[in-house]
Design goal:
This is VOC family protein. It holds the Pfam family Glyoxalase. The chain is α/β, with parallel strands linked by helices. The protein has a single domain, classed as 2,3-Dihydroxybiphenyl 1,2-Dioxygenase, domain 1 (Roll), CATH 3.10.180. It is 21% helix and 41% strand. It has three helices and eight strands, in the order E-H-E-E-E-H-E-H-E-E-E. The strands form two sheets. It has a four-stranded mixed β-sheet, with helices on one face. A four-stranded mixed β-sheet has the order 5-8-7-6, covered by helices on one side. A hairpin with a 2-residue loop joins strand 3 and strand 4. It is globular, with a radius of gyration of 15 Å.
Length: 115
Protein backbone atom coordinates (compact mmCIF):
# COMPACT_ATOMS: atom_id res chain seq x y z
CA UNK A 1 0.00 0.00 0.00
CA UNK A 2 1.21 3.50 -0.87
CA UNK A 3 -0.40 6.57 0.62
CA UNK A 4 -0.76 9.02 -2.25
CA UNK A 5 -2.09 12.05 -0.38
CA UNK A 6 -3.19 12.98 3.11
CA UNK A 7 -4.85 15.86 4.91
CA UNK A 8 -5.85 17.11 8.33
CA UNK A 9 -9.55 17.93 8.71
CA UNK A 10 -10.59 20.56 11.24
CA UNK A 11 -14.21 20.85 12.33
CA UNK A 12 -15.30 24.47 12.05
CA UNK A 13 -18.41 26.59 12.52
CA UNK A 14 -18.00 29.29 9.86
CA UNK A 15 -16.55 28.16 6.52
CA UNK A 16 -16.13 31.64 5.02
CA UNK A 17 -14.47 33.12 8.11
CA UNK A 18 -12.12 30.16 8.46
CA UNK A 19 -11.11 30.12 4.79
CA UNK A 20 -10.56 33.88 4.89
CA UNK A 21 -8.10 33.56 7.79
CA UNK A 22 -6.10 30.78 6.13
CA UNK A 23 -6.00 32.66 2.82
CA UNK A 24 -4.84 35.82 4.62
CA UNK A 25 -1.78 33.97 5.93
CA UNK A 26 -0.90 32.51 2.53
CA UNK A 27 -2.75 29.21 2.09
CA UNK A 28 -4.64 28.55 -1.15
CA UNK A 29 -8.05 26.94 -1.63
CA UNK A 30 -7.49 23.62 -3.40
CA UNK A 31 -11.14 22.50 -3.49
CA UNK A 32 -14.39 23.78 -2.04
CA UNK A 33 -17.75 22.11 -2.10
CA UNK A 34 -20.01 25.00 -1.07
CA UNK A 35 -20.29 24.92 2.74
CA UNK A 36 -19.90 21.14 2.99
CA UNK A 37 -16.12 20.83 2.86
CA UNK A 38 -13.04 22.69 1.68
CA UNK A 39 -9.36 21.93 1.30
CA UNK A 40 -6.61 24.51 1.72
CA UNK A 41 -2.99 23.93 0.85
CA UNK A 42 0.44 25.20 1.77
CA UNK A 43 3.71 23.60 0.81
CA UNK A 44 3.64 20.06 2.14
CA UNK A 45 0.19 20.14 3.80
CA UNK A 46 -3.50 19.96 2.96
CA UNK A 47 -5.96 21.14 5.63
CA UNK A 48 -9.58 20.05 5.35
CA UNK A 49 -12.36 22.26 6.73
CA UNK A 50 -15.62 20.55 7.76
CA UNK A 51 -18.61 22.37 9.25
CA UNK A 52 -19.79 21.14 12.64
CA UNK A 53 -22.04 22.05 15.53
CA UNK A 54 -21.51 22.25 19.30
CA UNK A 55 -23.21 18.87 19.57
CA UNK A 56 -20.63 17.23 17.33
CA UNK A 57 -17.71 18.70 19.30
CA UNK A 58 -18.95 17.82 22.78
CA UNK A 59 -16.26 15.85 24.56
CA UNK A 60 -14.80 14.46 21.34
CA UNK A 61 -12.52 17.10 19.89
CA UNK A 62 -8.78 16.56 20.19
CA UNK A 63 -6.30 19.36 20.55
CA UNK A 64 -4.13 20.10 17.56
CA UNK A 65 -1.84 22.86 16.46
CA UNK A 66 -0.63 23.56 12.95
CA UNK A 67 2.79 25.07 12.40
CA UNK A 68 4.21 26.88 9.41
CA UNK A 69 7.62 28.20 8.46
CA UNK A 70 7.96 31.18 6.17
CA UNK A 71 10.65 32.73 3.99
CA UNK A 72 10.40 36.05 5.85
CA UNK A 73 9.50 35.81 9.53
CA UNK A 74 9.42 39.60 10.15
CA UNK A 75 7.14 40.16 7.15
CA UNK A 76 4.84 37.42 8.45
CA UNK A 77 4.73 39.06 11.88
CA UNK A 78 3.89 42.40 10.25
CA UNK A 79 1.17 40.82 8.11
CA UNK A 80 -0.56 39.31 11.15
CA UNK A 81 -0.45 42.70 12.89
CA UNK A 82 -2.00 44.43 9.84
CA UNK A 83 -4.76 41.80 9.86
CA UNK A 84 -5.41 42.62 13.56
CA UNK A 85 -4.83 39.00 14.49
CA UNK A 86 -4.02 38.66 18.18
CA UNK A 87 -0.67 36.93 18.54
CA UNK A 88 1.64 35.75 21.29
CA UNK A 89 5.33 35.89 20.48
CA UNK A 90 7.85 33.72 22.26
CA UNK A 91 11.38 32.57 21.89
CA UNK A 92 12.91 29.33 23.10
CA UNK A 93 15.82 27.04 22.39
CA UNK A 94 14.26 25.84 19.12
CA UNK A 95 13.57 29.29 17.68
CA UNK A 96 11.08 32.17 17.57
CA UNK A 97 7.33 31.53 17.52
CA UNK A 98 4.24 33.56 16.67
CA UNK A 99 1.16 31.85 18.14
CA UNK A 100 -2.42 32.73 17.15
CA UNK A 101 -5.82 31.09 16.74
CA UNK A 102 -8.07 30.45 13.76
CA UNK A 103 -11.70 31.64 14.10
CA UNK A 104 -12.74 28.15 15.28
CA UNK A 105 -10.04 28.14 17.98
CA UNK A 106 -7.46 25.93 16.25
CA UNK A 107 -3.99 26.79 17.51
CA UNK A 108 -1.72 27.99 14.70
CA UNK A 109 1.87 29.16 14.75
CA UNK A 110 4.73 30.37 12.61
CA UNK A 111 8.23 29.34 13.63
CA UNK A 112 11.63 30.71 12.73
CA UNK A 113 13.68 27.66 13.70
CA UNK A 114 17.24 27.93 14.92
CA UNK A 115 18.25 24.83 12.96
Amino acid sequence: MIIKESNITINIKDMDKSISLYESIGLKVKNRWDNHYAQLTATGIVIGQHPTSDTNLTGGAGNISIGFTTDNFEETKSRLEKLSIRTINRQEEGGQFIHFNAPNGTALYFIKPKW
